[in-house]
Every structure is written in structure tokens, then in C-alpha cells.
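Hi team, as promised in this morning's meeting, here are the two structures we talked about. I've kept the exact order from the run log so nobody has to guess. The first one is mostly here for context; it's the second one we should focus on when we meet again. Sequence first, then the predicted C-alpha cells.
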Amino acid sequence: MIKFSIRNGILTEKINIKGDNVALKNRLWTLFYQSAFDPYDSLDLELTDFEKTMSELGTHYEFPYNRIAKQKNVETLKKHIVNGNCWWLIYELIEIYVARILETSKKDELISQVNRILEEENSGYRMIAEIFVPITNEVELSAVEETLFSSFDVVEKHMKKALSLYSDRLHPDYENSVKESISAVESMCCIITGESGRTATLGATLKKLEKHGIHIHEAMKSAFEKLYGYTSDENGIRHGGINFKGASSDDARYMLISCSAFINYLTAQYTKMA
């Protein structure tokens, strides 16, 4: 059901690119607290993990010699995260918790709950592969997410790195994000064609896909040959000196989405041949 405030025009339904929605921060904190701490038990999160997390987030850590001190640490963290002016800290807290502390068997469920809250609160972010990523629509998100969990390790590795470089809030590296995206496509083409060494380039393998049973439209092939050329010319990202400095967030995002979609297409074709 659409919220009263939206239905009556009091608030807009536009995507909230920031995380400064109070309800969003409170809901994410509550989810984190319920997962990390049992309010009826002894706040049994590993102390070294909690101390390191609080330190990274810029909060004071008090040695937890008893339950009261443990709870004080939690309250200090909550005040800093939920009531502070740094809207992004709740995202950083959950990233640290999911990546370093949460048991692997529980990660998928928590990430699913986080994304449900983000969607309900119209956030401009979703959590994929343990990090928060800016999104524009669910179709693009689905394409990227599918590639991130590829059955081919080398493809998955390149795409996760591309996503990580693109999503780094403080030091985004759009040039190398583009490079990793195109390298993921290159890796998928090499898997299909069996090429390695000096012939294992996207330009070469695209031309050999048809010999290995993968028939793609000439326009699609041409588009990716041109994208490869863009990243390989004298000013390009893949050129030896890697002197290309012009990639923007839009460039990196486009490549991330386009390469994900193409990899998913190639994977589907390749799977049919097996």
C-alpha cells in the first residue's frame, strides 16, 4: 500500500539518493541490532570485531567489563549512526558487519531484509555482494546481480572488482571500473572460445564466437567491438600506460550494466550448448 504522505502529495515518491531518511536509518539500525545483538542475552558480538568497527566509524569504545558497559557501547554507536549528520554511516556499519562479522549462512537473509527496507523507503541504493550500490531501476540491478554470482570464477572476480571500484564513496575509480567490466566480458569470451595468451583479447575472441556455436547479431558484436576499441585506443583505459582520465561515473555505470547484460546473454547461450 502506498503511504498516506505519498498518496496525499505531502512527500514525493522520488528515489532518495542519500540515506538521510530518518525512518530508513532507524529501520536499518533496528535490523542491524536485531542481527548483531540479542537484547535478552549478553550482547555476544565478538569484542575485537565490535571495537574495531566502532573505531573505524569514529566512535568511542569503552572496555566492556560488564553488561552495562557493553550496552553503553551500543548506545554510543546508535547515537553516532542514527542521530548524527553523516547519513552514510549506517551503510558503512552494515557493510562492515556483513562482510567481516556475520556468519556466511546468515548473509543472504540479512541482505534480503536490508534490500526490502531500502526498496520500501525508496532508497537509491541496494546491497549486492556485501556492498551498497547506487541503482536506477530493478532491471539493471538484476542484470548486475546475476553476473556477480556467475558460475565462472574469473568473470565473477572482474565484475565484483568493477562494482567495488565504481561504488567506493570516498575514492571511486571509474577508469579501472570500466577496465574490469570489459575484462569480465573478455574472460567470458575466452571461456567460450578456449583462447589464452596473446590471442585472449576481446577483439579476437568476439570474432571467434560463431565458430564455437555462439551466434550473436552483427550489430551487437559491432557494439562490443567498438566498446573494446574505446578502452584500447591510444588514450584508452587498457592502453599500456593507462593514462585515460576521462571516465565519469556515468561511463562506469553504463559499462557495468552493459557488460553485465552481455555476459548474461553469452552465459545463457553457452549453457544451451552444454
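And here is the second protein, the one for discussion:
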Amino acid sequence: MFTYKLGSLFAGIGGIDLGFLKAGVSTAWANEIDTYCAKTFKSNHSNTNLIVGDICNLNAKDLENIDILAGGFPCQPFSIAGYRKGFEDDRGNLFFQIIRLLKEFKNENRLPKVVFLENVKNLYNHNNGETFKLVREELKELGYHVTEKIINTCEYGNIPQNRERLYIVGFLDEDCFNSFKWPTKTPLTNTLDKIVDWDSDVDKKYYYTESTKCYPLLAENIKNNRSIYQFRRVYIRENKSGVCPTLTANMGMGGHNVPLIKDSKERIRKLTPRECLLLQGFPKDFIIPKDLCDSRVYKQAGNSVSVEVIYRIAKEIVRVLNEKC
């Protein structure tokens, strides 16, 4: 039985929803503007009220009461890999749509007990810390007591991906806030060998052959059979720490940062979309819609969250709500 309800903004393919669901929180409603993400979300969350469209068109009066409002608002404006425009970027301004909805809920005396937000770690130091200071101030003005932490997936989620993200938790109740504790580091037992299939054949479209233009560069640099490599435009970089480099949204869109391996048969190939989802902590039975092209799925995986990290934070939020609120 689910005790608490979640409202999910910028829901993507439902990674945050899965983490909270695992902690015993059901999603009352979700919002996502990308129709391809919506297709994947619906395939895996068929009972959730998914509102497909622009967050700017949402109105709190049309939304069911919730205990927790969550959202991984667009990270590109703050990303080291992007132009780092922050709130000058239209996507950065979407943070204020979260604030707008919270204000609408407050005006109706049904402000969620908890706010949970996720973004790239660069948000914390963006514009010499002024951007994040504004985020905190906006949440505090609504009555939230706010705490934040930069967490690496491979250190806290038992998933072999190097992925540092900023997590923000706000409680309306000060006792709840004081009781909340961030997860501690956990040993990485879920190794690459449990996720990446080094031995079996995959679809031929994932392999690089001698007829591929960049093959000489790949063959010269990709030597080890148990490492993951990144193709960064003009050079190849090996990750020697036994984890996958940060998955990015552009890895399947002809951009750089494509994760590559040399399998046990000395063949060079890309990680499959399924492997990328597993490296974000999605379950093996997570449904990939058959009519979605690989580039869309790669982008969805790169844009998503690490489900196990979300679960560990969500579990602590639920503990606090059960004991203090």
C-alpha cells in the first residue's frame, strides 16, 4: 500500500518515479513535454496520469494533491558540457515554473511536504554560487528548509557509472528537515561485468568494422577487453577506474562521448541502449518501445537519473515522513 503521493515534473522516462516507487511512493501525476520520452514513460508507468505538454501550461488547480514534488529540471544550461548560461537560457528559466506551481499550491493551502530536485553538479557553483543561492532562496521563501549534496552514482548507487549530480531536498517541517540524513557511500559490488555483455553477439549495427571511417583511430587506441572508452571527437579516452564514464544525452546523436568497448572476440562496438539503461540502474525488464530508434533511447538514457540513487534518497524521505510528519 502506498502512503505518499508524488508529483513528477520533467518526468522523462520515469527514473525518479521508479526510485520513489521502490521506496513506496506512488506517482499521482507526471508531466513531460517530449513525446518520445512520454512513449517510454507510458510503456512502463501505464497507471500514472501522464500529462504530455509544456510545464508552462500546468495549473495547480487541475492537479491532484501530492506529498512530494520532484523534478530533474533541464540541466544543459548549467552543464560543463554545455554553454553554462544558467537562467539566461530558456531551459534554465523552467526552474521558475516549478516555483510558480508551488506558489499556486501554497495559495490553495496544499503545498507539498517535500520538494526533491536533481541537476548537474555545476549548478552548485554556477555564476560563483549565485545561481544556486537563488534556488535556495526561492524554496525558502515558500517555507522549505533546504539541504543539498553532490552524489556520485558509483559511490552511492552501487552502479558502475561515474555520474556526479546535485540533489536538493526541501522539507516544510523543520523537525523532518533536522531528522533527514543523506545516504552514505556504499561498496561497488555491481561491477561492469554484471552489466556489459563482453562475450555474446549483439546486433551488427553496434559494431565498428574496417569499413568505418574512424576505425583506424579506434583500433589503435582501444586495447583492453574490460574497459569502457569514450570517443571524444578526435581522440579516444579509456576509463581505467572500472566504471563507465558519465552517460550523456548526445552519445547517440552523432556527438562525442560515445561509450565503446572491445569485446572478448576482439570486436569494437558501442554499448547497446539496454546496457546504457542498466548503467542508470533501470531494471532488466524495463520496456523500450519497439518503434523508438536507438538514438532516441540513447538520449533518454543519457538524460535520465540513476534510479538506485533516487531510491536511497527517497527511502530516507519516506522514513522521515513516517517518523516525524
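Starting points for discussion:
Residues 192-301 form a domain with the DNA Methylase; Chain A, domain 2 fold (CATH 3.90.120).
The first helix runs from residue 15 to 22.
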